[in-house]
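F.,

This is the one I mentioned.
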C-alpha cells in the first residue's frame, strides 16, 4: 500500500557522511606507514664531504710537459765576494763603543746604558719646552679669553638702564592717577566697619595708598633713576 514518503529522505541519508571527518572515527586513525629506507642515521645534519678523487683524476690535473722550443730563464749569478768588498770599502766605519772598567781584573760594561754617559744633554731639543706643553698653554689662554668675553657680555646684558625724563614723567603721572583712584575708593568706604571683609578691604586700600605715596616720593626726589632688566 502507498505510504507517506519525505521529500528530503535522500538528502538526510547523505548528510552524516558529508559532515563526518576522518579523525572523528572510532579507533586509531589510519596513517601511512613510514618507509623502512627513512631510518635514523648517525649525524644526519653534518655536511657531507665530496667523495675522494681517484688517482686517475689526479693524474689528469697535472700540468702538461713544456714544448721542445721552451727555454728557461737563466738567472745571472752574483759575485757576493766583490759585493761585500765594495760595501765594506764604501760603508762608514763603526764607531767605538764606550766602556767602563771598575775592577782590577778588567771587568768592563757599557757606559751608555749605565746612566753615566751624558747622551740626553746632546740632543737638539734639550732644554726646550715640549710642544704639548706649549699647545696646552695656548689652549688655556684661549679658553680664559673666551670666558672673560662671555662674562663681559653677561655683565652688559645685566647692566642697569637709565630712565629718560619723558619715561620718568609718564610713570609719575600714572602713579598719581592710580593714587587718586585708590584714594577715591578709600573715601567711598562706609564709616562703620562691622564685618571682616570691610576691615580687610580697608587695610588693603591703606597699604596700597602708602606704597603709592612712597613710590611717588622716591621718583620726585631722584632725578636719575636706573632700572635692571
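My design for it:
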Amino acid at each position: 500500500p502507498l505510504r507517506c514518503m519525505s521529500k528530503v529522505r535522500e538528502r538526510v541519508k547523505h548528510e552524516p557522511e558529508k559532515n563526518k571527518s576522518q579523525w572523528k572515527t572510532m579507533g586509531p586513525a589510519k596513517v601511512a606507514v613510514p618507509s623502512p629506507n627513512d631510518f635514523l642515521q648517525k649525524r644526519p645534519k653534518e655536511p657531507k664531504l665530496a667523495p675522494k678523487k681517484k688517482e686517475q683524476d689526479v693524474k689528469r690535473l697535472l700540468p702538461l710537459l713544456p714544448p721542445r722550443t721552451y727555454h728557461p730563464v737563466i738567472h745571472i749569478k752574483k759575485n757576493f765576494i766583490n759585493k761585500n768588498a765594495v760595501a765594506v770599502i764604501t760603508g762608514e766605519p763603526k764607531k767605538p763603543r764606550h766602556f767602563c772598567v771598575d775592577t782590577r781584573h778588567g771587568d768592563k760594561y757599557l757606559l751608555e746604558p749605565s746612566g753615566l754617559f751624558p747622551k740626553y744633554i746632546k740632543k737638539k731639543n734639550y732644554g726646550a719646552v715640549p710642544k704639548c706643553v706649549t699647545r696646552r698653554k695656548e689652549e688655556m689662554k684661549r679658553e680664559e679669553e673666551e670666558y672673560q668675553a662671555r662674562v663681559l657680555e653677561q655683565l652688559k646684558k645685566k647692566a642697569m638702564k637709565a630712565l629718560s625724563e619723558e619715561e620718568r614723567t609718564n610713570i609719575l603721572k600714572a602713579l598719581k592717577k592710580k593714587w587718586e583712584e585708590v584714594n577715591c575708593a578709600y573715601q567711598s568706604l562706609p564709616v562703620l566697619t562691622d564685618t571682616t571683609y570691610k576691615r580687610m578691604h580697608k587695610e588693603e586700600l591703606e597699604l596700597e595708598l602708602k606704597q603709592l605715596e612712597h613710590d611717588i616720593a622716591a621718583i620726585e626726589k631722584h632725578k636719575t633713576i636706573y632700572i635692571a632688566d
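The mean pLDDT is 83.

Talk soon.
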